[in-house]
Amino acid sequence: MKSSLENHSRWVQYYTLSVSVLGVGVILLSLMQLPGMWKGVLFFSGMAAVAEFFSVELFRSSRGNRVSVAGIIAIASILVLGPFAGVLTNVVAGIMTPIAQTFRKRDEPQNGRVSVLRRTLFNIGMFAVATASAGGIFVLLGGKVGSPDEISNLIPLIAAVAASEIINILILMVVIVLQTGQKPYEIWKRDFQWGVPIGIIGGVIGGGGLALAYHLFDYIGVLVFYLPVLTTGFSFSFYVNNMKGYVNKLEEMNRTLDEINLGLLETLGAVIDAYDVYTYGHSTQVSVYADALSQKLGLPDKE
């Protein structure tokens, strides 16, 4: 058993390292194209970093599927500046993701958790590969960089967003398969199948709208389009985090109440036992029999 777990862990390390190395190669290639578009890349990357640091999302399902504003910004940068700009924009978001997660969970125990460096390298590799693929598909299908207002870009845009979503999911699914041994179809059906159409719709509408705003009104247009989305997403995240706090407090109060009720029952049992010498110990024996019967019936501990 231990040997099997070690083998799984080794394969996960090999795989994540391969994704990271491939991503670094894509990033280096993208950086070679940077001099001619550094202002635009800096602008879009800054927005993506802010969105990812504050965990701004337009949607998150119960399974964790989400429409990230940072991903939408990366799609917009592909439409406006080209595939390499999209790679660099999404890589900045990939760097920010584990940093933001570590900051938000700094008070939680980190036992067994992968280091921030390894998570960062894997994230930037995954984002770089997925975004480069999306950008390449956009160009191969006839998409015109810098002309987001042309209707002919719609099909390439949809294909690019779909490619980005699916490649991201495939890379993640391989990690889950290697770690847990689960079947890919089960993982897809349980965790991802409902998130893909939502992600594609969000990427097409949000990325296309953001690129169009930049094309028509330059930086001001992007900010006008971006700030309401950022505010809405941040408010949603703030609301969710507050609700988590309330739920945790409620669960703690319920546990305390259960302990009080248990203590009250024990006290009542002691009173009954003390009332009559012939019934002494009766309550304890009943509880022992009830416990034995529940175990025989296979009932959970809570019942």
Question: What does this molecule look like?
Answer:
The chain has helices at 2-31, 38-53, 69-81, 83-104, 116-140, 154-180, 184-192, 195-275, 282-297, and strands spanning 57-60, 66-68. With 303 residues, it is an all-alpha fold. The chain has two domains: 2-234, Orthogonal Bundle (Arp2/3 complex 21 kDa subunit ARPC3); 248-297. Strands 1-2 form a two-stranded antiparallel ribbon. Residues 57-65 have low confidence and may be disordered.
CATH architecture of the largest domain: Orthogonal Bundle
Biggest sheet: strand arrangement: 1-2
Any idea how many domains? Answer: 2
Radius of gyration over C-alpha positions, nearest whole angstrom: 27 Å
CATH topology assignment of the largest domain: Arp2/3 complex 21 kDa subunit ARPC3
Write the H/E string, N to C. HHEEHHHHHHH
CATH class annotation of the largest domain: Mainly Alpha
Helical amount: over 70%
Low-confidence stretches: 57-65
- Total count of helical runs of at least 4 residues: 9
Number of strands: 2
Shape: elongated
**How can the largest sheet be summarized?**
2 strands, antiparallel
- Would you tell me the structural class of the helices and strands? mainly alpha
Termini, distance in Å?
33 Å
Percent strand:
under 5%
Mean pLDDT: 77
